[in-house]
Amino acid sequence: MTLLRANFLLLPVAAALAGAFAAPARADSLIQLYEAARGYDATWQSAKAQYDANLYRAEQSRAGILPSANLAAGVTRSGFENTVPAADRSLGSQTGTISAVQPLYRPANFATWEQGKRQVELAQAQLTAAAQDLIIRVSQAYFDVLGAQDTLSFVQAQKTAVNEQLAFAKRNFEVGTSTITDTREAQARYDLVIAQEIAAENDLRVKKLALDSLVGRPDVTPEPVAVTPGAPAPAPGDINVWVQQGEENSPSIQQAKTSLEIAQLETEKAKAGHKPTLDLTASYNVTRNPNGTTTALAGTRSNTSTVGLSFNLPLFAGFATQNRIRETLSLEEKAQADLEATRRNVAQAVRTAYFGVVSGQGQATALEAAEASSQSALDANRLGYQVGVRINIDVLNSQSQLFQTKRDLAQARYNVLLGRLKLRQANGTLLPEDLTRLNALVVN
To answer: What is the pTM of this model?
Structure first.
């Protein structure tokens, strides 16, 4: 019994976890997996392609203020018959014209050009949001795998401990110092832990498949991170500073602001329906008649060049322009309301994420204390069981509480790390460099 007691007390949970956490031949850091996902994830690739398309579409808006040129050419053949005097001729004509137009004053075109510039800003904000979303999705999958590995390791460690307790109960029953109830209770708890182990193995398998499909590589093994106690609070510690950073950096707010500016320019375009336009025009025409014309027997060639101004003033369009202006003003008002709603949502999201990190840190601290208390309770129940003041179920319950606390503590620490990334996503300051900082926490 003394030997079993010594073996039980020397059961190193940390050693059991070290076997599961031992770095394999190829373990990938969070930043490495993020870079892999950038080259594989379909959602990110779609966002990048949309960004490129938006840039090209925005560039098209310049066409309205740049000169345009056209080249036209034609060949005709006609028959000519005259009765007095009798004549029958076949006439050919060859023409070529090159023309150019340079807009000088077209308010609608210039407003469209300004909208194109805003479209570039809008596309950049959308791509930034997609990049931050990819960071969070990779991080979530990364920590999900680590959490599932922890859960499986803790369940396996609990299985070892319960198996030791089962053997201890059987030995006591054989020597007559305990009842069969202790053995059956330990057997029931062991069977339960076996079921939990099967569920944990399947959960880890599913989480690893999710990470593999995200980064496009099979059998990805994330590097464990050091789940050290006492993580520092978010810096700065003033939540209003985080909210202010969100106002300045949030991609959602930037998109809403840009959409409002585009709506305002759309109103300017509508108002341009009442304004005149002025274009500079130029053309050069060559007409050649090799066989002459109906009035000339010899072949002819004429060259004509023109330069001028084209002025157009809208007078009446059936009230279409007035109603278009009213429509764009309403859309502008909608964009303003959308911007205000986005600001409120971002501020709320920042506050929620900030308090989530603070709360998570508090939970982790409380669970650290609970872990120490659970360990003390388990030791006390083991001793009490040996001296006969505790029963086997008390020891089993203490074991279960200890390993559950360890699982909750590990998950809470991961949630704090992920919560910090989500806080930066909420206020728009999340960058890939934040993943690099996490590499400092990698277990060597």
So the answer is: 0.83
